[in-house]
Every structure is written in C-alpha cells, then in structure tokens.
C-alpha cells in the first residue's frame, strides 16, 4: 500500500525552503538495518594437509638429489685416485684325464684345468670367494668343479688349479655318437664368484663376478693313450654384477 503525502494548504513564501516531509516506512526500515559484511572463510583442513604433503615430498626429493650428487663426487674422486680396473682371467691349460660314454649314453669325464687370474690394479687387493666352474660343449655339461677362495695382491697374477668332473649324465643318441667319434671337442668355460676390494684397511662389500671363456678346443682321449695338456688361451669376458637395493646391474 503506497504512503499518502499530505500537502499544506498554506502558500509557501517566496525564498523560503521547502517544507520537510516525514520519512517513509522504507526509509525508516533501511536506517535500522545493519550493513552486510561477508565473513572470512575458514582455512580448509584438506588444503593444509595437502600443503604439508607437498612440502615433505619436496624436501625428500632435495635430500635424494643431494645424496646422488655427493655419491657422484665421491665416485669421481675414487676413480681419479685409484683408476680401478676389472680382473682378467685366462685359461692356461686344459686336459681330459678321462672321458667315457657308455653304451647306454651315460657320460663320465674328468678334466684338469688351470686358470690364471690377474689383478691389473696397483693399489687394490681382491678378496675372492670360492669360484665355481662349469665346462660345456654344445650345451652338454662335461665337468663341474670349484677353485678355492684366495686373496690376490695388487698388480699380481695367481694360478688356479682344479679338477672338473661329471658322472652318470645321460646324453641323447646324437650327442653320445658325436663324443665317441670326435678327436677334439670345442668347449666353453663358465666361472662365477663374489669378490670384494681392499683399499688399505677398508674393505668394500663383495660384488658378483661372472666369467665366460670361449674359443677353446681340447683333445678327446682315445683308449689308454695319454692326452697332452693344451694351452688354449681363448677369449674370457668378465662381467661385474653390482646389486643396488633390489636391482642387479
């Protein structure tokens, strides 16, 4: 309902100010109403937790980066001072002391093996665990053996001797026939061990070492005739197996 306005019946003198009208109902309500002020939003717990996780992740990444840089610097200094080189292996001699294939295809063999291990480092000493050795020919295991554990001084060579043997291994007809007819046998030699490094009074953790020698031929004994030991040499490749946490390189 609209407000009524009553005008005065008396004339307004010239130059006099206009009469003041009483305030309307809307003006009265507006004067008593308080102005709206928005309340500041409270910080969310999710945002604070997310920010804390991000800070922790960033700190962890920075710590890991610093550790990697320090490890790289230490490795570089170690290499510059000691110039480490992997060991060298070669087959000095190999001879069949016995080799027999029965009518049923069972293999019995015995080999005399000499291997030379050389340490080319001038300041590092190698600490070897026992070395396992396997002699293979065309996928057939013709002998297994072990070299005893030893310590190899810096810039030195060590002659290792052992006997590898196989008893009762069943061969297929083709492999058995080839062994009976052949006068020489191509073989591969696999060796595996663990070795640590000694630098003064400091000893490192032992790492895995695998050696593969190929291009070797050995004479096959016939009857009671003795077989002269061969000096095959061959090409021996050395691989280091470094384990970092759960990974092996």
Characterization of the model:
The protein is of the alpha+beta class and 249 residues long. It has three helices and 13 strands. The protein has helices spanning 25-32, 45-82, 173-181; strands spanning 88-101, 106-119, 125-128, 131-137, 140-147, 150-152, 156-170, 184-199, 202-203, 207-219, 235-241, 243-244, 247-248. β8 and β9 (202-203) form a beta hairpin. The termini are far apart. The mean pLDDT is 81.
Would you summarize the structure shown here?
22% of the residues lie in helices and 43% in strands. With 249 residues, the chain is an alpha+beta fold. Strands 3, 4, 5, 6, 8, 9, 10 and 11 form an eight-stranded antiparallel sheet that branches.
Poorly predicted ranges: none
Number of strands: 13
Mean pLDDT: 81
Order of helices and strands: HHEEEEEEEHEEEEEE
Instruction: Evaluate the radius of gyration.
Output: 46 Å
**What is the general shape?**
elongated
Percent in strands = 35-45%
Q: Could you say which structural class the secondary elements and strand pairing correspond to?
A: alpha+beta
State the end-to-end CA separation: 92 Å
Largest beta-sheet characterization:
8 strands, antiparallel
The percentage helix is 10-25%
Q: What is the tally of helical segments?
A: 3
Give the assembly state of these chains: single chain
């Amino acid at each position: 309902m609209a407000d009524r306005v009553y005008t005065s019946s008396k004339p307004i003198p010239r130059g006099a100010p206009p009469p003041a009208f009483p305030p309307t109902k809307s003006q009265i309500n507006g004067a008593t109403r308080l102005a709206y002020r928005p309340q500041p939003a409270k910080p969310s717990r999710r945002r604070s937790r997310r920010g804390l996780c991000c800070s922790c992740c960033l700190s962890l990444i920075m710590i890991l980066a610093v550790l990697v840089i320090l490890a790289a610097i230490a490795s570089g200094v170690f290499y510059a001072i000691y110039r480490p080189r992997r060991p060298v292996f070669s087959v000095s001699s190999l001879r069949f002391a016995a080799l027999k294939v029965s009518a049923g295809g069972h293999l019995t063999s015995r080999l005399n093996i000499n291997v030379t291990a050389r340490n080319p480092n001038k300041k590092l000493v190698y600490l070897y665990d026992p070395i396992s050795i396997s002699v293979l020919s065309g996928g057939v295991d013709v002998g297994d053996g072990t070299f005893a554990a030893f310590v190899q001084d810096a810039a030195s060579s060590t002659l290792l001797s052992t006997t590898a043997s196989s008893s009762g291994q069943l061969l297929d007809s083709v492999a058995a026939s080839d062994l009976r007819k052949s006068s020489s046998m191509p073989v591969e030699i696999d060796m595996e061990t663990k070795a640590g490094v000694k630098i003064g009074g400091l000893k490192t953790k032992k790492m895995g070492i695998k050696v593969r020698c190929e291009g070797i031929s050995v004479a096959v004994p016939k009857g009671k005739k003795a077989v002269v030991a061969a000096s095959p040499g061959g090409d021996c490749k050395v691989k280091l197996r470094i384990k970092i946490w759960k990974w092996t390189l």
